Automatic annotation (TrEMBL):
Domain of life: Bacteria
Organism annotation: Hymenobacter bucti
The keyword DNA damage belongs to this UniProt entry's keyword annotation: no
Protein name: YidH family protein
Swiss-Prot/TrEMBL keywords: Membrane, Transmembrane, Transmembrane helix
Membrane topology listed for this record: Multi-pass membrane protein
The keyword Zinc-finger appears for this protein: no
Domain DUF202: from-to ranges: 18-79
A Pfam short name: DUF202
Length: 89
């Protein structure tokens, strides 16, 4: 039997929390990919700056683009999640 002070789970709040966490995980995936591209770009620039110059800077530019897309996507979906929230009764 449940103790009298325990509140029952609100399925709507739990679903919203799972959705917010999924959105944060997706942002972290964009960050991880961006950091990998930064490492790849810097490694190319350090190995042979003359031959891999364009590819290294291209990877750095792609990293910045990935980070920007991830951040914009995160903000957009966070606003959508908040807009769909049902007020507590």
């Amino acid at each position: 039997m449940n103790p009298p002070s325990a509140r029952p789970y609100d399925q709507q709040q739990l679903a919203a929390a799972r959705t917010r966490l999924a959105n944060e995980r997706t942002l972290l995936t964009y960050v991880r990919t961006s950091l990998a591209l930064v490492g790849f770009g810097l490694a190319l620039l350090q190995l042979e700056p003359r031959r891999t110059h364009a590819l290294g800077f291209g990877a750095l530019g792609a990293a910045a683009l990935f980070m920007l897309i991830g951040w914009l996507r995160f903000r957009y979906h966070a606003r959508q999640i908040e807009r769909c929230r049902v007020p507590a009764a």
